[in-house]
Design goal:
2 domains; 3 helices
Length: 241
């Protein structure tokens, strides 16, 4: 899976909270999930999707496992490059695993939804095999369309989007490059366990630990950004003042 420089920045600051927490979480999952084969390689399958989306519309992203990179552009449509990644002993074993994950891009004009569909979970083995099924996304969307994103496990990077953003990530890092600080009306970012950092003037916190948050308010702006992370880092960077 791809990792951006935010990972290196976090490690450079000596942050160990998420690593310790993830170790505990991994230990718990190991009790619920079957052991992976000792000899397993990564296999990928790429696909492309497109849908028309107008200014003022909304892109909804709902994924489970994988990294997401969203870039705003001056075109009235959404372009999605999806990369399925599975772990298997050989290509023959990987092919049926690709079919277990479905990627759907639905809707057009004012509302478009991108989602990943995984096999139904068994009540007694809810996480079986999911660690071997990943979908990474590179997405281009209209810069003035709103973004609503939900991701269970993955790093998220958003840049060049000037409309409202509402992001929720359970486990992973979130990086947002705000195009214009003057255009930002409201910002609230919160992590239950992890690290927050911002170069926006006036944000009250920049630290690591439990229930870290940053906030910003500018009544002359228009864009609203809300980020909620359960375990991971939040990084907010501002464009021109």
């Amino acid at each position: 899976m791809r990792r951006w420089n935010i990972r290196a920045a976090w490690r450079h600051r000596g942050v160990v909270f998420r690593g310790a927490a993830l170790a505990a979480w991994t230990a718990l999952l190991s009790l619920l999930m079957p052991a992976s084969p000792l000899e397993a390689d990564e296999f990928t399958q790429k696909s492309h999707y497109s849908a028309r989306l107008f200014s003022g519309g909304t892109l909804i992203i709902d994924t489970r496992v994988g990294d997401i990179h969203v870039t705003g552009w001056d075109e009235p449509h959404v372009e999605v490059d999806a990369e399925k990644l599975v772990r298997a002993g050989n290509q023959a074993g990987a092919n049926p695993m690709f079919e277990r994950i479905k990627v759907a891009l639905e809707g057009r004009d004012k509302s478009v939804r991108l989602s990943t569909i995984y096999p139904s979970r068994k009540p007694w083995r809810p996480f079986r095999g999911e660690s071997r099924l990943t979908v990474n996304f590179d997405i281009k969307m209209p810069y003035d369309a709103a973004l609503v994103l939900r991701c269970v496990d993955g790093d998220v990077r958003v840049e060049g989007v000037s409309a409202n953003e509402h992001l929720r990530v359970n486990y992973g890092d979130v990086e947002i490059d705000v195009p214009s600080v003057l255009g930002l009306r409201y910002l609230y970012a919160h992590t239950l366990l992890g690290y927050v950092q911002s170069d926006l003037h006036g944000t009250p916190q920049d630290g690591v630990g439990i229930k870290q948050k940053i906030a910003w308010w500018n009544p002359q702006g228009k864009q609203e950004v809300a980020v909620q992370v359960r375990m991971g880092g939040v990084f907010i960077y501002g464009g021109p003042q």
